[in-house]
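Journal club side-thread
Mid-discussion, someone asked how the predicted structure for our own chain would compare to the paper's figures. Pasting it here so we can look after the session.
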Amino acid sequence: MPKVLFLPDNVEIQVDEGENLFRAALGGQVHLYAACGGAGTCGKCRVRIDSGEVVGGKSPKLTQQDRDDGYVLACLSKVTEDIVVTIPEETSLTHIKPPEGKRVEVLNSKVLKGSDFEESLPVFEEPPAVRKIYLEVTPPSLEEPTADKERLERALVEQGIETPSISLGVIRESVHLFRESDWKLTVTIIGQRVIQIEPGDTSSSLLGVAMDIGTTTCAAELIDLNDGRIIARATAYNAQIAFGDDVITRIVHARDDKGLSELREAVLKTINELLSEVSSDHSAIIYLSLAGNTTMTQLLLGIPPKYIREEPYVPSITDYGLVSAVDSGIAMSPKGLIAIAPCVASYVGGDIVAGVLATSVADREPLTLFVDMGTNGEMVLGNREWMMTCACSAGPAFEGGGIRNGMRAAKGAIELVRVDPMSRRPTVFTVGQGKPIGICGSGIINAISEMYMAGVLGPDGKLDRSVEAVTERDGAPEYVLVDAMESGTGKDIVLDENDIDNFIRAKGAIFAGVTSLLDNVGLTLDAIDQVLIAGGFGHYLDIEKAVGVGLLPDLPLEKFRYVGNGSLLGARLALQSEGARSKAKEIARKLTYIELSHVPSYMDHYMSALFIPHTDESLFPSVAKRKSAR
């Protein structure tokens, strides 16, 4: 059997002869970035063969220089002999972490700040669903020979639990505990049901975790349920990204039991690693509240997502109730329970319901546009009277997918671009101030807006070939953001017209979704009182630039507000209060889902939005004003 040594990780594995190199890397827990899930269409799983040879691996996505230097696409390569493979920094997902802390800030930028949003979260009076009660129960005697179960039930009634429910399994496990603890014990209950009995007084230790299961990023918060205090936080990329950037790619991968199992194991690995980061004792976590989109939730639960992408686009389940931890594969107390935010439709999931819960859209008068821009594009329009929602096939461009030098927001990713209006040459800023190795979503928006304003780029997305920084590769124009001498990859970092087209399609889908929702209720853009931007991508979104490319409506800046991770905020509220969990169910029932593929005007809006900023320039007066002032 041939051996494969992966560098710089120094991971060596044996594989069957003819094994696909991308699959071999996954088997060795070496995760490569492949936006297409290993289908050979994105060109992201680029690796260098240092020793030995592979069969295949050639692709038009590789330059001639790549091929001369020994690079191949892992997903198109077969292993037939011992090889040594080097994984470039921009290809590896093994050690990459979502960026934390402060990122680039430039004077006069219009980047929204979300740090103050948590201060305005709704308050729910009801306590968490899970709580602990310390009891000192009178022991049985010859004078009062009441059975253990009835004795415990009576003590709980005295504590205000009207109709306590104690299962046979709990009693079976506690027979010796009652006596060994001298009937001094702590009972964990959810609602009226006893789920755990511990010796002594452990009521001061009641831990829960709020979690967001995103297509790209997962996040967790360890919370003291007695006082609501956040003890620890952690984030990580969802390990499923090794199987593709977007939900459609993953649904396709999960078409058989093997693929479904791989995706479930990947997200469970991420979840359990996050739990390890926030708590050294998994068994102490008794309650977990999580929110995610419909596909992520079904994959986590092992439910085939096949029918999510087939008309009439119906999920297998919308209200998940409480899931037993022992059946979940999640490394927490086996007595614990998992509350999952309800979804609305195949492409509007519990993450959106949680975001609406956190922002109180359903309880306030202002007409609100709630937009979650990430790997998927979902939005809600409404207020306390009514709410409509839809989802757009925006694609992965906002996460760097479908962009030749696109990447996630990690060290070395270009996140901000300025183009000099005279020379029309760019200045770039990177995450972590490292050498540029690619460009992330916020950088793409900045770059395209700046290029348009400086006249490098026309409204149709075509580059001006007379600009010095515009060069040609195989007859196709590209704008050089960083030349090879200055980049961390030794190659030019560019945006070409294909990249720009992919971005325009993504931003066009978002804007068309907004205008289609407004059409459905007979309103126009100026009727919107506030715009709430949710999702990790929104944290670094320069609103002026997003408006400048036609991604967001041209409204006064004060109408925009960044929410942060609305999914995680909502999951936290549902963890801390049973009232909030009930409210989430109410929101899911109230949201009216619009399937855009059945809205005749959607395609008209979409086609009109495939220009920068739009074919109807009157919709973007501030953009025209800024451009004329240049």
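Post-session note: Residues 424 and 454 are 6 Å apart (CA to CA).
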